[in-house]
Amino acid sequence: MVTALCLVVPVKSVGSAKKARTTRPGREGKSGRDGRAARESKSPQSKGARDGKSAAGPAAARSQAARQERKQQILVAAREVFAKRGYARTTVDDIALEAGVARGTFYLYFDDKRDAFEELVDAFASQIGGAIVRIVTGDAKRSVSSQVLENIRAILGVCLAERTMTKILFTDAVGVDPEFERKLTTFYDSVVQLLTESLKDGQALGVVADGEPRVLAYLTIGALKELLYQAVTLGLAAESAEALTKQVYDFLCSGYLRVEADGPGRKVRPGRRH
Predict the structure, then answer these.
(1) Is the pLDDT score of 72 beyond 90?
(2) How far, CA to CA in Å, does 263 sit from each of 137, 145, 154, 268?
(3) Does 175 share its domain with 255?
(4) Among 114, 90, 91, 115, CA closest to 103
(5) Cα–Cα nearest to 23, from 15, 13, 12, 35
(6) Same domain, yes or no, for 253 and 145?
């Protein structure tokens, strides 16, 4: 989720933080991907069908659409169960029951609950990343401050609209599964590095104050994580996004962000570096 934190300076693209999963026990003595491959080899659906590469034709298209719909149905159910029971206490049986499918059907789409959880996290991160607009300077039509506000507004809007995933990430993801915690740690580390480099770029452009970029990155991430956690825990409505946007923007401007607004819709000059 914290891909969104690169919101105040020019950013570079974030590569996928999803690592290759290590081997883990699967069903009936099979392990991880080997178990999935074995199931696929016995299934009338090919791997191509599973990955959306089924043979051409109306029947194949309908079959693929049905599979995608069923997979999404299971993911929605998993998200709700994770939110209600927590990741650690959730079982595959819980997810299958919520989705209204058989346990075996779940395993046609996912290796285990972690597999489903990873897809939910990656999809949420993609939503956040898709909401970010790259910050540019020297654009007479789009001031720096308006771009920063757009990014903050979009990020908060996604997190408040997808409060279930926001809550899951901040309350259940750490400390319950060593392997998945390593995935999250790698993801957060990549975001810290990206934000650090972006802050360095901002300092060179004069829109970010002097200071150790990595420290500024940690402070930014910590502040926004806590804000979003409290927002979803307290049940703030999506309409609160605008008020929160202004407060986050003011917070950044009172800290390291150096932009000076000339007026509504007008160009913002990079501020002086201190």
Answers:
(1) yes
(2) 16, 10, 22, 8
(3) yes
(4) 91
(5) 35
(6) yes
Distance of alpha carbon 121 from alpha carbon 16, whole angstroms: 12
Amino acid 18: pLDDT: 44
Maximal C-alpha separation, the chain: 67
Distances in Å between the alpha carbon of 259 and those of 85, 112, 214?
44, 48, 21
> How confident is the model over 25-36, as a mean pLDDT?
44
Task: Give the count of domains, the chain.
Answer: 2
More confident residue, 60 or 1: 60
pLDDT of residue 250: 92
CA distance 269 to 206: 10
Same domain, 42 and 176: no
The pLDDT, as a whole number, for residue 118 is: 87
Cβ 258 vs Cβ 206: under 8 Å: yes
The whole-model pTM stands at: 0.68
In a shared domain, residues 76 and 129: no
63 and 165 part of one domain: no
CB-CB contact of 133 with 154 (8 Å): yes
Band the pLDDT of 171: cuts 50, 70, 90: low
Alpha-carbon dihedral angle through residues 165, 171, 175, 177, given to the nearest 10 degrees:
-30
**How far is residue 196's CA from residue 135's CA, in Å, rounded to a whole number?**
15
CB 90 within 8 A of CB 58: no
Residues 252 and 167 in one domain: yes
Closest CA to 36 of 51, 53, 52: 51
Confidence band (pLDDT; 50, 70, 90) for 260? low
Q: Of 266 and 166, which is predicted with more confidence? A: 166
CB atoms inside a 10 Å sphere around CB 80:
15
Domain hosting 45: range is 33-49+57-112
